[in-house]
Amino acid sequence: MSLLLLPQPSTTLSPVTVSALAARIPFATVTPPRQRTFTAKATLSISLLDTAPNAIPPKKVLVPIGLGTEEMEAVIMIHVLRRAGANVTVASVEPQLQVEAAGGTKLVADTDISTCSDEIFDLVALPGGMPGSARLRDCEVLRKITSKQADENRLYGAICAAPAVTLLPWGLLKRKKITCHPAFFDSLPTFWAVKSNLQVSKGLTTSPGPGTTYQFALSLAEQLFGESVAREVAELLLMRTDDDNGTKKEFNKVEWSIAHHAPSVLIPIAHGSEEIEVVTVVDILRRAKANVIVASVEKSLEILASQGTKIVADILIKDAQESAHDLIILPGGTAGAQRLSKSRILKKLLKEQSSAGRIYGAICSSLAILHKQGLLKDKRATAHPSVLDKVNEEAINGAKVVIDGNLITSEGLATVTDFALAIVSKLFGNGRAKSVAKGLVFEYPG
């Protein structure tokens, strides 16, 4: 069940697969309403249950979060499992639904954990992070839910610190092969501990860190829905095979010189922005000690991302124009990119960024924003395959990341970790990038 060999990324699926996935995916596309206001608590779903009374009920998944939960792990799990077709409930173990994750990202849960106590889940998946794993451990309701899950032979999983910090004290690792983050590995029972990126043992799936979360989440998707669905999701995520591991290409190399201060990085977000891309860039750059500011182009700080994750920005975009930023990075997501492109303030900031020779970048579908503003002239770039054909500039295929002078671009989704680490390398040096990658348990090719 390890999905070690994945097919070449594809931009098209068979009609049968598209139809099947559309029927299963509850957050396949989030299209914000046309009204002047937007309520992030609203959710959109596509379900056969609405039209076919005899349809198979969707698989139900619980992802609990708490103060200090590792945001990359939580968000990647949520995203991958929703794409696979699971009905994912994000539940807070805190008194409030808004939770500040380990890297400072503010996530909003769907519900309080207490509302889940009588639910039956096909999978309970615990993200790691500290003190997030300890907060999950200390939640009695979650302990009972997860213990019942194990007792009744239903699937459960944990990543990073959670196997050692959460499941071990609960007694849920007995006679199972497990792995976890290297920092907590010595806490595991010696005979059953395995140093690997993925361990599946008698209904329990474990993995060591943020850098292995895609593999972890895809294994869970495979156990729930089968190998073919997991492979389709891997293609949608633009995951590569081991034999096609193109990384970054750089043209017109310049030094990204930043004065003696922590670089200021602006990440604009909107309803429909791609949550994996937002959270991964924010988390990794903050690990590297950059000053990252998440700015909403909406009227509210809270946005509903492409697969239904609720993210709370630090500021509104109007407050971001009060100072210059060393970098501006645009996350993708088709609907999100469209909404970002309509922000007059963001357009102004991007033009000023380019004119001043400061750094800017785009991930996935947001390359179209730079193209529309004429900010790709004589530049080489990459983007999601569906976008590359629509820009006239010299597109670079086969690279996860392309750097051209002060411009950096990426295909998106599963390539965004490489993208963020490439930024760290340019700003702080390759040593810092390797150090951050090690903490992520990510094999850094640089």
Automatic annotation (TrEMBL):
Which CDD domains is this protein grouped with? GATase1_DJ-1
One GO BP annotation is: glyoxal metabolic process
Taking every annotated instance into account, which residue ranges of this chain make up the domain DJ-1/PfpI? 59-223, 264-425
InterPro entries associated with the record: Class_I_gatase-like, DJ-1, DJ-1/PfpI, Prot/Nucl_acid_deglycase
Keyword Translocase appears in the UniProt entry: no
Q: Is Repeat tagged as a keyword? A: yes
* UniProt cross-references to Pfam families, sorted A to Z: DJ-1_PfpI
Give UniProt keywords alphabetically. Repeat
**GO CC terms of this entry:** cytoplasm
- Family assignment from sequence similarity: Belongs to the peptidase C56 family.
- This one is known as DJ-1/PfpI domain-containing protein
